[in-house]
Write a structure and sequence with these properties.
alpha/beta, five-stranded parallel β-sheet, Malonyl_transacylase_ACP-bd, [acyl-carrier-protein] S-malonyltransferase activity, Malonyl-CoA:ACP transacylase (MAT) domain-containing protein, Mitochondrial_malonyltrans, Acyl_Trfase/lysoPLipase
Length: about 400
């Protein structure tokens, strides 16, 4: 199971430093914090429907108007159009770390899903399906490959669902969506904010930019298991007292109770690992990622993303898409562009997002794409949460 360590009695664990074995369940669960490249999915200006090649993004009904809303300074956080959204059914999309060799195979039996992989090959310049289904795993796990792979496979899962009995009704019932880090781009594509093709181009660029930023810095990430967020913050503060400013650490992923990821300079991460036992952490797990994602270490990637987003047509989503940055939905296209650029250096507010949705009355969720990472997180936050996985 995804969170197997947390189900065992606390006293049986002693804080320890682990290194993930690539492909292990823990690796898949905890590496979700890797970011990915953005890309748009949308149709002609002023319409909510995407082009025929991007039907995956849209359902035929929505409770929300597609009118654009300019956010004033008094609504800088949150959104005027979606301020009073009341979720009942959500589509949730996974992030990096959910990839696994063999994904995408099921989608080939659904023509609309298979078509997405063919379109991806033309945009990416390589055979994405072959890498998804055959690996090698080391290549599929790389930042620049896994992000486009998860984006395409997750949207293919929407088409797999659409082809099932009752699948169209499920898709039409969705009234809110969000995704974990990279998954936010998938959610925006599903909501019609940009086209499948544009979204994939953005995701490709994002992965490359994040990898380059990681290569330029000696940074890392570690997951701290068994502490609440306040204790993890105290642990970070203690570590930062012992290292130079360039080595400092911070919480980068607020995933769920007892599972928070810390990013920063390698020396700072090493101090976190060394001090975790004294803070009564269950364990620390060094993440097999390229660098300190969702921190200022990723700042070099921001300008590249800003340029790409500025050149991309983004529309008002047809349903609320909850941002990783502030756990709020946004409808103004310019605001969405700003939020996506900020996302790579901002902590992921997934725990707040899920708790907010639950508090607003969310009844059922669907995790679309490879793995069941999100399902595990939801169950950790609310054992009674109803969620179904739709793979591809």
């Amino acid at each position: 199971m995804l969170f197997a360590p947390s189900r065992l009695p606390l006293q049986r664990f002693r804080p320890r430093r682990l290194r993930l074995v690539p492909g292990s369940p823990m690796a898949s669960t905890l590496a979700i914090l890797r970011p990915s490249a953005p890309a748009p999915l949308a149709g002609p200006r002023g319409r909510v429907a995407a082009p025929a090649t991007a039907r995956v993004a849209l359902s035929s009904r929505s409770r929300y108007s597609s009118a654009r809303v300019s956010l004033g300074s008094d609504v800088a956080v949150g959104d005027a159009l979606f301020a009073d959204y009341k979720p009942s059914t959500a589509f949730l999309f996974p992030g990096q770390g959910a990839q696994t060799v063999g994904m995408g195979a099921e989608a080939q039996s659904v023509p609309a899903a298979a078509k997405l992989f063919n379109q991806a090959n033309d945009i990416l310049g390589y055979d994405l399906l072959d890498l998804c289904t055959n690996g090698p795993k080391e290549k599929l796990d790389s930042t620049v490959i896994s992000q486009p792979a998860i984006y395409v496979t997750s949207l293919a899962a929407v088409e797999v669902l659409r082809a099932r009995d009752g699948g169209k009704d499920v898709i039409n019932s969705v009234d809110v969506t969000c995704g974990l880090s990279l998954g936010e781009y998938t959610a925006l594509a599903f909501a019609g904010a940009f086209s499948f093709e544009d979204g994939l181009k953005l995701v490709k660029l994002r992965g490359e930019a994040m990898q380059d930023a990681s290569d330029a810095a000696n940074s890392a990430m570690v997951s701290v298991i068994g502490l609440d967020s306040e204790k993890v913050q105290e642990l970070c503060d203690a570590a930062n007292e012992e290292v130079d400013e360039k080595e400092r650490v911070q919480i980068a992923n607020f995933l769920c109770p007892g599972n928070y990821a810390v990013s920063g300079g390698v020396k700072g991460i090493e101090v976190v690992e060394a001090k975790a036992k004294s803070f009564k952490a269950r364990m620390t797990v060094r993440l097999a990622v390229a660098g300190a994602f969702h921190t200022s270490f990723m700042q070099p990637a921001v300008s590249r993303l800003e340029s790409a987003l500025a050149a991309t047509e983004i529309r008002t989503p047809r349903i609320p898409v909850i941002s990783n940055v502030d756990a709020q939905p946004h409808s103004d296209p310019d605001t969405i562009k700003q939020i996506l650029a900020r996302q790579v250096t901002s902590p992921v507010q997934w725990e707040t997002t899920v708790k907010t949705l639950m508090g607003k009355g969310l009844e059922k969720s669907y995790e679309l794409g490879p793995g069941k990472v999100i399902a595990g997180i939801l169950k950790r936050i609310n054992k009674g949460a109803i969620i179904e996985n739709i793979g591809a």
